[in-house]
Predict the 3D structure of the following.
Amino acid sequence: MGVQEFDFNSGKVLDPKRKQAILAIENDADVDVIKEVMRQRSYKDLGRETELRAVLEAVRKHKVGVLFLDADLAGINVRELLPSIKKAFFDFNIIVTSSTVTKESLGETLRLGAIGFLVKPLQEDAVKKVMAKLK
């Protein structure tokens, strides 16, 4: 039997196949909202990255999961990044966050492969609704 993870808060052994997430989010309040929803849904936290190179390395290392991608991070070009991640790591779901949204940017983000779009500052109900779409 392999090593198992234990959740000391719930007193349960965690399912090794449970879903996992990387947070490429800069704002601490937004991170707290996402982490609370992740905790409620038993997601494994794969870490928080705010630099493009580290984000890509984390996705490459874990190969499957969900990436919360802040379109407002320095060096992030969602139009280029989304298709490349989806092509190389099709098992990663991407949820884009941004403080500015237009009908066009929302549509383009979804066409490029994101499964959801969240407007900052993040609200717990909105995060739950988008995460309900995850496979």
Observations:
- The first strand starts at residue 6 and ends at 7.
- The chain has a mean pLDDT of 89.
